[in-house]
Specification:
With 126 residues, the chain is α+β, with helices and mostly antiparallel strands. Helix content is 23%, strand content 29%.
Amino acid sequence: MARDIIQTPDAPSPPPTYSQAVRAAGLVFVSGTGPHDPVTGKIVGDTIQAQTRQCLQNVSAILKAAGSSLDKVVSATVIILEEADFAGMNEEWLKWFPVNPPARQGAKLPVRVPGLKVSIAVIAEA
């Protein structure tokens, strides 16, 4: 099975331990993507809504580089720092997925990164 490593400068660069995404078996697997500015690497936004928005902008850029898009997302994993932010994350999420949203699971961030409130990973059709 062929697999393609996806890398775009339009989304933050990951550490050398994993790829932004991998395209294989007709799917695109996007790694957990934080709310970082692709140019500066700094976290964007102080609110969960702003950070969710930046995560989804980054995920969208990675999917575009892979020849896919947010409307082809079939599954998502949202990892948040604080349970109290769940409603605010959903508020922004619904702006991006207003109908027929993907399957989704959530978890709590296992480590604290200063300023980071959310990370999002997705699987999409290629």
